């Protein structure tokens, strides 16, 4: 399974959206160079308030570009970086990957998928009603999160739009992604 990067985004200041860039640099064990969420320990404000020593399992946020097309069907216009993601992809079922999947991005970078993004009310501040589009209920009644996946950087490198993303599934029994 493989796909490609369609956009990369980062922001050195706390903001819901992130501007698109020509490239971003992933730093092993830290995240996106210069991004406010980079670091060994948690950087999201709500998590820092709970326990600032927690490991940062949310160093990199990836989202599938196909989501933008899905929400457009309900009248929402969303572009790359606008939901706070660092890497926008196409052609990969990010939400269907198991925990521990390695994403080999471009020539060098490797991101390990740690879990699902837990979207918050800021999505509705961005566009009222959008939160219901990215968090819903499946046919079995369970909550379904569609706002992308989070990961940690295992091997650093430069990532650019157009880069190939190769998926390497973990060995052994697969664990479904949970919120991180």
From TrEMBL:
It comes from the Bacteria. Pfam families: MOSC (PF03473). Residues 18-168 form the MOSC domain. Coiled coil: none annotated. Signal peptide: none annotated. GO terms for molecular function: catalytic activity; molybdenum ion binding; pyridoxal phosphate binding. PROSITE patterns: MOSC (PS51340). This is Molybdenum cofactor biosysynthesis protein. It comes from Streptomyces cellostaticus.
